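Today's session is about reading a structure prediction critically. Students often jump straight to the picture, but the first step is always the sequence itself: look for stretches that repeat, for charged clusters, for runs of hydrophobic residues. Only then move on to the predicted structure, which in these notes is written as discrete structure tokens rather than atom positions. Here is the chain we will use throughout the hour.
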Amino acid sequence: MRTVIIASEELNPLVPHTAEIIVGFIAFSLLYLVLRKAVVPKFEKAFTDRTHAIQGGIERAEQAQLEAQRALAQYNEQLSSAREEAQTLREEARVQGAAIVDELRAKAQEEATRITAAAHASIEAERQQAVTSLRNEVGALAVELASKIVGEALEDQARQSRIVDRFLDDLEKSK
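Below is the predicted structure for this chain, in token form.
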């Protein structure tokens, strides 16, 4: 049986030889050291860089969001201020427009009053002129008629004026 056990030990594929175990251990140790010295720091650096980049991006995004909120608040404030200013300007324009309309209305009323007064004065002057003209014509006709009726010449100017004035006064009193 012993031969069977030795033969079975040599031929057992599941048990490695001692030299393979030593070579495998040395190769594994070398691979471990190379990975630990060269590759792992690069992975760790890449991970930390990526972490910092993500955190920096988040911080920049938060900062940009805060700035956007400040800008929006400032914009809303300016918009509100502009609306108030526009309302104030509209109100001032309305007040100025009303003042201008009142001023023009007053000037038009003054002009109408002046034109009416000038027209009344002109009418009164024309009436006076017409009365004077009629007096002269009536006087001339009366003198001519009186000359024909009386039969004597009434050539004296002062006398004619007195007669005409007395005649016209009598006519006015008879009305």
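Discussion point for the tutorial: Residues 166 and 172 are 10 Å apart (CA to CA).
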